[in-house]
Amino acid sequence: MTTVTTRTVEYPADGLTMIGHLALPAGVDRRPAVLVGPEGPGLNDFQRRRADTLAELGYVALAFDINGGRWFTDPEEMLAHTTPLLADPDRMRGIGHAALEVLRAEPRTDPDRIAAVGYGTGGAIVLELGRDGVDLRAIGTVNALTTGRPGEAARIRCPVWTGVGSEDPIMPPAQRDAFTAEMQAAGVDWRLVVYGGALHAFHHPPVDQTVLPGVGYHPRHAQRAWRDVVDLLAECLPVTE
Questions:
Q1: What does the pLDDT average to over 189-208?
Q2: Residue 209 has pLDDT above 70, yes or no
């Protein structure tokens, strides 16, 4: 197995001290890099392992923080934090840019070859980086069919892949249609995968907390969505480039 080195990184964003997780592949050469954005409850070991797995594939990977080191176990508390954030594109961009600066500052990172992958709130954040005109090689999101301010999607400079569960009540068909209409009108190279029978957060294993209605794990689709993300990176940001 490829040797992966990990370390915790602290950095300021959104008035908080963020605590991210950086994973480095073996070697000393510069590599393509991936931002990994977590779900609304925050950054936990599952998201950190996503970064580690990407490092095993040869990428520098930063799983970034959105809650100042907190993992929300109470859904109401989580929603009280994330709902205002999701309504404020500039705050989301600030969080994304701060993480991007940390990733670019890593000597192993090739600053011209960076992609961003995000889940839920983290996906909304990486989409806002795209709408802000950041030079990314790819954007991949799961459960993050968020639309932006009018016209700004035209600034997205890379392919966008997104996945959603067919039974996700938080991202219903009307939201899917609004998102794809925004991408199409902006001339973005976009793809949408609908995973049949899956709920919101279908990609995340159960955790010891009270979950919201409409949220549930779907192991088979979780594996498929991860393969789709890896395929997106292989296409747009190959390690061997």
A1: 91
A2: no
3 state SS of 200 = strand
The pTM score is: 0.96
Burial of 224 (0-12, 13-18, 19+ CB in 10 A): middle
Task: Give whole-number Cα distances, 48 to 154, 183, 208, in Å.
Answer: 32, 30, 18
Strand duo 160-165 + 190-195: pairing = parallel
Backbone angles phi, psi at 10, to 5 degrees: -110, 140
Q: Comparing C-alpha atoms, which of 109, 123, 121 is closest to residue 54?
A: 109
Which residue stretches of the chain are H helix?
45-56, 75-86, 89-105, 121-131, 173-185, 219-236
Per-residue burial over 22-46, b = 16 or more CB atoms within 10 Å of its CB, e = otherwise = bbbbeeeeebbbbbbbbbbbbbeee
State how far Cα 20 lies from the chain centre.
Answer: 13
Tokens of 19: 């605590």
φ, ψ of residue 224 to 5 degrees: the values are: -65, -40
